[in-house]
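Could someone model glycine with this protein?
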Amino acid sequence: MTAKLMVELGERSYPIHIGEGLLDEAELFRAHVTGRTAAIVTNETVAPLYAQRLAATLERAGAACLRIALPDGEAFKTWETLNRIFDALLAAQADRRTVLVALGGGVVGDLTGFAAATYQRGIAHVQVPTTLLAQVDSSVGGKTAINHPLGKNMIGAFHQPSAVVVDTATLASLPPREYVAGLAEVVKYGAIHDVKFLDWIEDQADLLARRDAGALAHAIRRSCEIKAAIVAQDERESGVRALLNFGHTFGHAIESAAGYGKWLHGEAVAAGMAMAARFSVRQGRARSSEADRLVALLARFGLPVRPPDFDRRVWLEYMGRDKKNEAGRITLVLLERLGHAVVAKDTSMPELEAFLGSP
Ligand code: NAD
Ligand code: GLY
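Reply:
Sure, complex below.
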């Protein structure tokens, strides 16, 4: 069964289609590609799996197809890789009606979205996410970026897609470690926004771990519903959208300081959520039983819940460059209770430093 949700952003509203086998559904793409060049941007791992099928679908939907395969990995989310997209578009004389179609995980999605935001001052793009993490999070909401050696996602733009097409069947080929990393973002939505969803994730944890189709369909749909509602309220993150960064201030520091690709994004977010929950307890905001419950759920999926052993100065250096910070003060997303997170701009530096000494 196919579900259709909307991200309500006025004239920039767009659908999220979720279902099995949607890679073959030309009708879902037709309005976005007919009579245009569709450039499929993917990577060398995903291309042999799904690019041919998607190209055939886009052609049936009336597009001329171009394919751009990038190197695979977080370490390639860089200017150099972005430039390879521009090189290919310019070599093909791609015009402003060209639509980019991101086929892959969050790395391909973020690079493609940023290329679409900037090529000839902005062209359309469609997201076709193929990792769990991208299906529940990165393909929705219009954040696009590349990494800088000094900080994660530091260069980018807000640029909404014109559609998101989630083919849940593509998850069958996802390696186990990547699948589990995506579950971290699913847990995040329950933790910050919806304790009933968190209860459900706990109940269905074994089915989710086994990639049960029914459980997955619900997890993806509910995650996208929550993300779509938050993005509709606060597209450019001046308020409530920051809650989606629960665990990310610690997590981004882990990814950057360890070297991009060593920790998967979802793994770093899991360890970061565990840290944020424990810090919430230290600050007297949340009960320790709530933090313990969250940590136990993450650990049950096999996600890391202990941070790497960085020096306190390393933590502070990378956390000091987080995009949520204001006037040199570190902003953190903390828990009041499960299902209810808050943005804390008043982090006491001595308390944070003490915590980072023994997290
Ligand atoms: P990823 O894009 O690196 O994909 C993970 C791995 O799975 C890659 O090796 C990829 O080639 C492979 N892969 C993808 N689909 C596959 C499939 N169906 N079968 C087999 N292999 C497949 O990682 P990710 O976890 O999808 O995304 C992480 C990135 O997303 C990070 O850069 C993070 O910053 C970004 N992100 C962005 C947002 C946003 O709002 N824009 C939100 C969350 C995360
Ligand atoms: N992943 C955080 C956001 O989209 O805002």
